[in-house]
Amino acid sequence: MLRLAARSARSGRGGDSFTTGGDRSVTVHGYVSVPPDQLWFLTPERLAGKREAYEEIAMSRGMVHVSGEAMFVHLEILGVADD
After folding, report:
1. Around 77, how many Cα atoms within 13 Å sit in the side-chain half-sphere?
2. Which structural domain range is residue 48 located in?
3. pLDDT by residue (tens digit) across 20-49?
4. What is residue 73's three-state secondary structure?
5. 28 in helix, strand or coil?
6. How far apart are CA 83 and CA 70, in angstroms?
7. Domains held by the chain: number
8. In whole angstroms, what separates CA 1 from the centre of its chain?
9. Which residues are 18's β-sheet partners?
10. How far apart are CA 35 and CA 12, in angstroms?
11. Which tens digits make up the pLDDT trace of 39-78?
């Protein structure tokens, strides 16, 4: 376990470090465990899109639709709806 923590801390991901406790526990700081079936959600492209969406919302440039159908009509008008 200690080797794993040391390897994680030296992995170069930035900010990772570890501490050990008197009870032989190891705490890795800056480490986030993500289940393998959810890794697709954390790709750089998706994270960039998420940041862009948050920025749009912060600038009140988003759009609210009264229903899912209204949203798809709007997307179709824009020419970006999936067929």
Report:
1. 6
2. 2-78
3. 888 878 777 776 777 788 888 878 899 899
4. helix
5. strand
6. 16
7. 1
8. 26
9. 28
10. 21
11. 888 788 998 999 998 999 899 888 889 999 999 999 999 8
